[in-house]
Write the C-alpha cells for this entry.
Amino acid sequence: MTPHSRFRWRSLLHMTRYTYRRAVCTFLGLILVVSAHGQEPPGRLVYLAGSGSTALDQHIRSLLVDQLRSDITLTPISDDQFPMIKNTPVISIGPAAFSRVRQANRSIPILAMLVNHSFIDVFAVRNPGQISSVLYDVPLLRQALTGKAILPQANTVAILATTATVELYEPLIDELPAHGMRARVFIVDNEDELIPSLVRALRYGDFLLAAPDEAIYNPRTIKHILLTAYRRNKIVIGPSQAYVKAGSLASSYAPFAEMAALGANMIEQYFAAGELPAPSYPQIYRVEVNDQVARSMNIPLPERAFLSQTIEQELTGNRGPQDE
C-alpha cells in the first residue's frame, strides 16, 4: 500500500468514526428531547366539523381560538377522517355537521354548536358526558319576556304548535303566571290549518310567540304568518334574528362571542374531568328589533340595552320600583 493510499484510508476511517459518533450523539439527544417532552403536559387537540358555510365556520373557529387556552389546538377535520378519531373531542357547527360526525363515529365526544335543545336533547340524555351542546335556541320564557318588555301591558301569549310539539310549551305555560302572563297553544297539524289557527291565536294573544318549530315556521310559511299578524296589528316575537330581518318585531339572541366562550369552557371541563358537562344556554343575551316594523305599527321601542336590562331584571326578580 502506497503512502498516499494509507493516508486516504486513515482519512476515510476517521470520517467514518466521526460520522458514527455524531449519529450516536444525535440519537441520544433525540431520546433526551422525547423523554423531556413526555414529562411536560402534552398539547391538547380538538377537531372542528364545519357547517359547510366557509364564512360562518371561520368566524366560529376564530372566536373559539380566542377563548380556548393556549395549550389547546383547534383544527378542522374532513368527513373522511371522522371514523379514525379516538379519544379526541369534536366541536360540530350546526345540526347537519353533528349528524355527520355521529353517524360516522359513535364513540367520540361531541360538543354541538348552533343546534336547538329539541334537536340535541335525546342524544345528550342517552349519552351523558359524551354528547353536549351550547344551545342555540332562546329559552321560551326569555322570548315571552322580550314581548312584555316591548308591550308592558301585555298579559296573554299566543303559541302555535303541532300535536308532536305541544308538550314542549308546558313548562312555559307553568312559568308565565309568576310574571303576570298566561299562554294558550293553538294546534296546527297541516298547512290548511295554519291560517285559521293563526287567526284564532291572534284574537287571543297580545302577541304571537314564535318558537323554533320548523314544521310551522319555515321559509314557505313565514311570509303568510307575518302578513296575517301585521294586518291584525299584532306583533310576532322570535324565534331568531333571521326572522326579525324577515319581519318579526323582535327576538332575544345570544351573541356568537358568548356561545364561543361557553363552548371553550365546556371543552376545558372535558379535559379536566374526562367528560363533557350537560348542555347549557349562554348566560348573556341581547335583543334584536326590527325598527321598520315597529314604526309601521306605531310601537315605540326603547333602547336595546334597556330591553335587555328589563328582561334580566324580570328573570332574576330584581325589579325596580316602576315594576312593582
Observations:
- Residues 140-253+290-323 form a domain with the Rossmann fold fold (CATH 3.40.50.2300).
- The chain has two domains: 44-136+255-273, 140-253+290-323.
- The CA atoms of residues 89 and 109 lie 5 Å apart.
- The longest helix spans residues 3-38.
